[in-house]
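ingest -> validate -> predict -> emit
validate: passed (alphabet ok, no gaps, 496 aa)
predict: started
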Amino acid sequence: MYEQLYFALRKRILHGELAPGSRLASTRAFAAGLGVSRFTVVSAMERLFAEGYLTAHRGAGTFVVDTLPEQMMRPARDGRARLTADEPSTLPTLSRRGLALSAVVITGPRSERDEPRPFHPRRTPLDVFPLRNWGRLIRSQWDEHHRQQLDYGEPAGYHPLRDAIAQHVVVTRGVHCSAQQVVVTSGSQQAFDILFRLLLDPGDKVWIEEPGCLDVRGALIGAGVTLVPIPVDECGIDVSEGMRRAPEARLAVVSPSHQYPTGVTLSATRRLAILEWAGRGGSWIVEDDYDSYFRYRGRPMSALQGLDSGVSNSERSSPRVVYVGTFSKTMFPSLRLGFCVVPESLVDAVANARAVAGRNSPIDAQAALAEFIVDGHYDRHLRRVRLVCQERYEAMCFHFARVLGGVVSLSPASAGTHVLGWVHDEPRAGDHESFVASVSRIASEDDLVVFRLSRYCLEPPARDAFVLGYGSLSPHRIAVGVERLARSIERARRRL
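emit:
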């Protein structure tokens, strides 16, 4: 409904029915007049604000901007700067699926500077990566195997890398697999895209975590399925609620080791419950294990895939879990190497789909990564990253308590590279956006990245929060970022 309202308002703005400078009614008046919830109107308005169609003046209301975004992106014709109803729209014609997919923006704002922006989530400590070792391994591939690097590779991946991955996840994550079951992909995102297109038909129902990862949501929308948001609490995804909302769902996507963005771990009871649900109905589970290695307190629980293999073998039933991992998070994002561990019955189909999607990943990077793992560099790097993440989380706790104590409190964390920040005594917001949304918008003007928890939800959360990344920030950068965030919060309070 909010998309219908968004498109209707945008159309009237583009066609001049709502002229530049026109004042809009308040969101309360809109909601009452249309007979919809105020959240529906707010969601539509927020998108129009974000895309530059509307502007707000304190104490005056919401107005159509004087210069439309299309005019700024298009050269003037015959000296005309204003878009009129007689001019054809330059907006592309997308399918319904394309429109839904384009609304899921998974990439964050970019900075012109080399330094990472506070507090961008899902960013790893790139400053501690062993560049010299990695560079040496890459050079050696071209020096010793240069002809091999120039040819096509196996779609399922460079076999020594598949073998190294299999041995590593068996030991460190309790995964049950052979090298034959490992398919190398261009990051976890390509693994999701391939798996969803192979395992799902358009219209199939799929459980997704609420709140949950936007990358997963985007891949599922691309597959044309029906999303069923299942709440996440302190024990992980609520399996009983999933069975109540959509017991016939074809697939569930879960991150049991460290859920994004809440950071919770799926309890043992719910692990068994979701495996029982999948086995009983012949459904699939895609396990996203994107940052299980970043646990710096306590021992992580083994992968759900290993538990599924044990249950399946004892009961002689087919495995239902597909395990997805990535090196783009544990190494560096531009590496674009990930993998999935699939049941033997799916290996040929997944490998063929990998060939269709992109033939194969660069062989030099795969070969270098295989040596990086086998020679022990990967394990040493992970140990160092865990220590750095713990140090940076403690710096977050110290500086937030020092600067924003009593204003924003951080949720406890024992793993990962981000944390949730909860606002105390949240002031009453204006008509067009919440206080948390206002802080997020103002912070972006100060070169901060402060995403909202509601960004990762299909349904409005009972309480919004900040999603604050710290993995890429030194303790000094964290201290500076907290000071700037405090100023953004104060500016947001003054504008109420």
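The chain has 18 helices and 15 strands.
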